[in-house]
Amino acid sequence: MEKKRNTFSGSLGFVLAAAGSAVGLGNIWRFPYLAAKDGGGLFLVIYLILALTFGYTLLVTEVSIGRKTKQSPLTAYKKLNKKWGFLGIIASLVPVIIFPYYITIGGWVVKYFLAFLTGKGTEAAQDGYFTGFITSDIEPVILMLIFLAVTAFIVFRGVNKGIESFSKIIMPLLILLVIGIAIFSITIKKTGDDGIVRTGVEGLKLYLIPNLDGLTVKSFFTVLLDAMGQLFFSLSVAMGIMIAYGSYVRDDAALNKSVGQIEIFDTVVAFLAGVMIIPAVYVFSGTEGMAQGPSLMFVSLPKVFAQMGKVGNVIGCLFFAMVLFAAFTSAVSVMEAIVASIMDEFHTSRAKAGIIELIVAIVVGTIVCLGYNKLYFEVKLPNGSIAQILDIMDYISNNIMMPIVAIGTCILIGWISKPQTVIEEVQKNGEKFSRKGMYVVMVKFITPILLFILFLKSIGLLTFI
């Protein structure tokens, strides 16, 4: 049993670990897809404004709760207020639900990385390749277990030797790969069958320049809610992770500065993901290829790499290596939130807590994998979408539980414990809380209202937007 709580060795370790958690699969495919769908630069501007206000409020609140209580989410809320322990239970259940399907998707990334690494990128670009893979019986389970094994190994090594050391190596590599692929994407050009020459620079303009054609009040609110939803999920808030990581932050660390650096990391990587993907997809698939949604990463992009010739296999390999790095850093943080909660609630060792979660993840992760073949079924969700096991778990965690946790956290801090709880934690070492006035207004009024609107839309009760 850990008598003394481990801490990150310094602010850099915390920032890289937290940024690694924030930079996940959602940044790589969902951000570019939404940007392309929602008018390019318009989405970017709204996202940036929300990152500095809405996102910052949620992030600094959770990190402060963690450092103040020195507890994981399951026990942190009831330490702040005994009557609010239920919120900690919900917050802890979120990563428990997310982890099995996240490692399943991580296994998919491993599949594509190995395909391009072994020179089989053209096969991965064939129609039916992705569907054939996920509907097979054994391979998705094996690759899921491989992804889980690496994730668990890092978590079992602890805060310093595992999470922090891993993040210090992987995050710089991830940034270098993102920048390198983004530069390459801008420089490519191709003459289409119609004789039109398309360039990466033109695709970049589509991404950066706001498209206001046909903009209405309704479409503006759609962009606003899309940007808010993306930011809400990409920052790893409302799933206990930032509270767990915050509990490992030393009391002498500059908390406000660190949160600002996490914001920058997450926003820059999300932006560069768009620079990587949108110009390349535009050059080889036109504007139609930019609106592929969730299938963008596993269906559309392999086709783009295949059209690049010999260099496509190399670029595809580097791209999926980068995606794999992002998947690992996020998966590690999700598993750590669960393990930390078990350790704090039941006063057990990291090894025992890790084994418990490992067993649960193997069982449920296998069920998720089989949800595309032996256990396949379809149901219609309240928001109108057709779903199977993975989609149902994603809907429950992301659309229902996470907004509830975030709204509850705002109410607790804004009205019960009062904003001064966070303000005092940020200013503990004499650090200036530069956005203090904005924070008070956001946590008490604007953020919970925006979250409630997002929640209503997520569960299908706000159909006019």
TrEMBL record:
Q: Which CDD domains match?
A: SLC6sbd_Tyt1-Like
Q: Classify the source by domain of life.
A: Bacteria
Report the GO terms under cellular component: membrane
Q: Which UniProt keywords apply?
A: Membrane, Transmembrane, Transmembrane helix, Transport
Which NCBIfam families did the record assign?
A: Na_transp
Protein name per its UniProtKB record: Sodium-dependent transporter
Q: Which organism is it from?
A: Coprococcus hominis (ex Liu et al. 2022)
Keyword Membrane applies: yes
Membrane topology (UniProt): Multi-pass membrane protein
Locations listed in the record: Membrane
